[in-house]
Each structure stands twice: as structure tokens, then as C-alpha cells.
Amino acid sequence: MKLKRISTILCAGSTWLLIIVLLISCGTDGNSESSGNSRVSSTPNQTTPTPSPPSTGGVVLSVGTRTPQVTPTPQVTPTLRVMPTPRVTPTPKATPTPRVIPILQVTPTPQATATPQVTPTPQATATPQVTPTPQATQQVTMPTASAKRKGTTPTVALQRQVAYFTQLGIQNYTVKDIDTSGAASKLTAINYAFAGISSDLKCESADPGTDYQKRFTDTVSGQADSLNNADALAGNFNQLRELKAKYKKLKILISIGGWRLSGQFSDAVKPANLKGFVQSCVDMFIKGNIPGLAPGAATGIFDGIDIDWEYPAFQRIDDQSKGGYVSSPNDTQSYTAMLAEFRKQLGNKHLLTIATPAGQDKFSKIQLNKIGQYVDWINLMTFDFHGSWETPTETQAPLHCDADDRSPTKTYCIDYSVASYRQAGIPVAKINLGLLFYGYGSTSSTRNKRGPYQKDVQPTPGQHGASSNDNATKGNRNFNASPFKSFDNVQEIIDKVNYAKSNGLGGVFCWFLNDDPQGTLLHAMMEPDDN
Predict the structure, then answer these.
(1) How far apart are CA 277 and CA 291, in angstroms?
(2) At 305, is the secondary structure helix, strand, or coil?
(3) N or C: which end of the chain has fewer CB within 10 A?
(4) Does the pLDDT of residue 18 top 80, yes or no?
């Protein structure tokens, strides 16, 4: 009975202990399920609270051995589920460095400081584009580089000052006047104009009497020409010899051709005639073998030959050429061949120069890209663009082309001509800018007609007088009175000389000394800074 009671008590106690343990276990599981990640780490301390031992020792053993049920470690520590480390510490997302620091996009230094684009000095100072005289008229645009270069090309001293002296002008201006006026001391060279071409296509004197026969009493040397020796050299040739003896550095050239004496060039320079023609010129003017005089009588006077063919491969329609005028399309190549032959026979000890046209309709027929190698310099005839032979009134030698000019000759201006020669390959240092020492006049049949581009006008003798400067073309003219006049005064000469300097040209030349007996324009040409 006693054992049975004890057994009953033990069974009852075990049952309660089991219930308590189960309750504790369930409570622990519930806490672990709802605690979240921050409380999971305390679970072990809560699930292993060994209950206070009852008064009976057997109970202690029974409760303490339920470790497998009481410590459901695998269920309580869902470490893998609770610590989604990769999701909790999304370092790459939290610190999206590449997206947060778009430094390269924010500071596009190369674009912000596009120095080459912002400061295109060459483009910024494209004065030539600002003054697109050539662009205004397709043909004019081609060059007009000179205006562009004004701001960038430094002014340079001119290498040459050349003047033409004609045998026909000795009535009011002689070789001695070249001396006494001071011109000879300042000039680099004098071109004596003109010699011609005979019917048998040989060089000849255009005026033997004036050239080497006339006896002067008022001479450069002060000694009158001898009247006793008919075979002795006299005339302008002898005076030039005396002038050259006085001015050792002065060069004197014989100029062949000109407006009135160019008619036979085309035939003279044909392949079959070229060598003989050139040889005759060298023999007469360089070797000094003048017909009717002792051999070599004129040797040493001329330092070279100047060719003034007006104009190769261009058919003139006037009747002013002595002996008629012949032209041929072959003149273009023949002109180049002629210069090559002259250079060959002259060698390098004598000068070879040319006077060339400034109008595009004429210089386009010359091989500008080839002739520069043969000549020492080029006298670019930047005058006679317009004159009394035309019915509209025009500026005879404008520095710049006029945008208001709608005529076929709208490219007739100095700037266009110079730029065209430069573009064609002529070294600018070989170009002499032409200056005109006379003007043209026209009389209108209608008194009310004034200003440029007026028609129905008649030519009047060229003359100097009061006039005004045209700001657009930098040419001198007076079209507000009758007769209309266009010529260069002192200021225009100065402007053109400065233009030559600022554009790097080699020199200037004038046509011609005889029309400036007082030396006013020549002084402006020689020393523009003194005016």
C-alpha cells in the first residue's frame, strides 16, 4: 500500500514536471518566433534556465536530463534566416560611388575651356573676311588678301623705287632735271621708254634722233655735246651715261614696247624668231652696238631690259599701235618662253624686268605661276583702270574695289590685282606697285549729271586740280564739277606707298617722271612719312 502510494506520487510529480517543462519549452519557442533579429541572441540564456531544484533529489535528475527537448538549438538559432548579411549591408547600394561622383561630367574642362575654339586668333583677326571685296563679286573675292594682311603683316621698308622716263617728254623734263630735282639720288632704277620692234622683228630705237643723235648744251656733266663728231654718242643715251657716272648705285634699263610699240611682239617671239629677236635686243642695248655709231658706243649704259608687252594673247581693238597690232592665243606660252630666253642671254649680271597688266581680263592670259623665276621684279601697272576712253565716269586707279560698281570691270582695283598676283604664286617681294602721275577728265553733255558711273561723257585733256578722296575706293576724283577729273594727288600717292609697305611688296614705280616736273608726287612716293 505504501509502495503503491509512493509510485502514485512519483507518477503525478513526473506528470507535472513534464507539463511544466513543456510549458516552459512552448513559451521559449513562442518568444524565439516573435523576438526578431535583435533578440535572437538572448535565446540560449532563456532556454537553458535549469529550474530551481525541488526538495526531492530525484526530480533534479529527471528534469536535468531533458536537454534534447529543452535546447532546440537548430530551431532557435535560425542564423541563416535571421542574418541576411548581404541584404542588411548593401554597401554597394549605400555608397554608389560611381554614380555619386560624376566628376568627369560635371567638370568638362576641355569643353568649358575650349581655348582653341574660343580664341581662334587667326580667324578672329581675319580682316580679309571682314573686307571680302572678292566675295562680294565672285572674281573679286579670289584675292583681297591684302586687306586681311594689314592687321598681321608688319610694315616693311621698300627695296625699290623705280621711275619711267620717256624720250617724248624732254620738252619740259630732261635727263638733267632728274639730277637737279634730286630724283636720281633717291631712285633705285630708271626705265627709259621706249624701244620698239622693227618690221623684220628685231629690236630698234623708236626715236634715233632723241635717243642718241640730239646734241644737248645743258647737260648733266656741264659739258655740251660735241658738234664735231657725228659718230659720237649723244642724245638721251649720252645723258643717261653721264647721270649714271654721277650716281653709281643708280640702275638704268631700256624698256621695250609700251602701248604704242607692242604690236609686233606676237610675231617676234614665235619659236622660229625668238632667239634672233632676243639677241638683237641684247646686242643693241647691252653690248651697245647702235646702228651708225662705232661698235660698242653705248655699252655700259643699260643695266638690263624691261619688257612692256601690252598685252599677250589679248586682242586690242584700238588703232594706236604703230604698225598694227597682232595677237595670238599662243602668246600665253610664247610670253613665258620669251622671258626664259631673255634670262638665258642676259645671264645673271643684268636685270630682266617686266611691266604687266592689272586687269584680270589681261593678266589671266599670262602664266603668272611660271614667269616669276625669270624676272628680277615686276612693275604691276595698277593704273589706267578707267579713263576718258570710257563713257561712264570712274575712278582711274582705285585702291579698293567699289561694292556699288556694277560694271563688267568691277574687279578693276589695286587690291584685287595685287592679291591675284600673290595667289598665282608671284613672290610679293618682286612686285612693284604702279603709281600714276597724271589724270583723266571727262565732260558731260548734261550739266545735271554728277557723281561716279555717269554716262554720256566726253574725254578732256588729263589735268590736276581740286578733287576729293573717295572713302570706299581710296581713289581721288572730282565728279561734282565739269569736267570730271580723276587723278592721284599727294595723299593718294602716300596711301598707296603705305599700302605697298603694309602688304610686303618689293617696291613702287611711277609712270612717269616727265609729268611731275616739280617733283611733288615723286617726293610723296619716295618719302611718304615726310608729308
Answers:
(1) 16
(2) strand
(3) N
(4) no
Q: Which domain holds residue 482?
A: 138-530
SS3 289: coil
187, three cell numbers: 631712285
Domain boundary among 59, 85, 111: 85
64 and 154 fall within a common domain: no
Lay out the sheet containing 440-444: strands in order across. Answer: 457-460, 440-444, 484-486, 475-478, 468-470
C-alpha cell at 233: 654718242
pLDDT digits (tens, 9 = 90+) for 161-209: 999 999 989 999 999 999 999 999 999 999 999 999 999 999 999 999 9
All three cell numbers of 27, joined, read 513559451
Same domain, 154 and 80: no
- 34 shares its domain with 145: no
Q: Are residues 10 and 151 in the same domain?
A: no
Note whether 235 and 322 are same-domain residues: yes
User: DSSP letters along 100-154, please?
Assistant: H--HHHH--HHHHT-HHHH--HHHHT-HHHHS-HHHHSHHHHS--HHHHHTTTSP
Report the pLDDT value the prediction gives residue 346, as an integer from 0 to 100.
98
Question: Could you tell me the CATH number of the domain that includes residue 287?
Answer: 3.20.20.80
Q: Is residue 121 part of a domain?
A: no
- Whether residue 107 lies inside any domain: the answer is no
Q: CB 357: neighbour CB atoms within 10 A?
A: 21
The closest of 459, 443, 452 to 473, measured between CA atoms, is: 452
Residue 141 C-beta-side C-alpha neighbours within 13 Å = 7
Identify which of 166, 192, 306, 291 has the alpha carbon closest to the alpha carbon of residue 233.
291
Asked whether 39 and 25 are in contact (CB, 8 A), the reply is no
Phi, psi for residue 286 in degrees, rounded to 5:
-95, -45
Instruction: Please say whether the dihedral angle defined by the alpha carbons of residues 418, 428, 341 and 384, taken in this order, is positive or negative.
Output: positive
Give the separation between CA 521 and CA 94, rounded to whole angstroms.
88
DSSP string over 280-300? HHIIIIIS---TTS-TTTTTT
Can you tell me the mean pLDDT for 57-61?
Answer: 35
Count: domains in the chain: 2
Q: Which of 128-132, 422-426, 480-484 is modeled with the greatest confidence?
A: 422-426
Distance from CA of residue 224 to its chain's centroid?
54
Query: What is the pTM (predicted TM-score) of this model?
Result: 0.69
pLDDT for the residue 441 = 63
For the cut 60, the answer to whether the pLDDT of residue 410 exceeds it is yes
Asked if the structure places residue 229 within a domain, the reply is yes
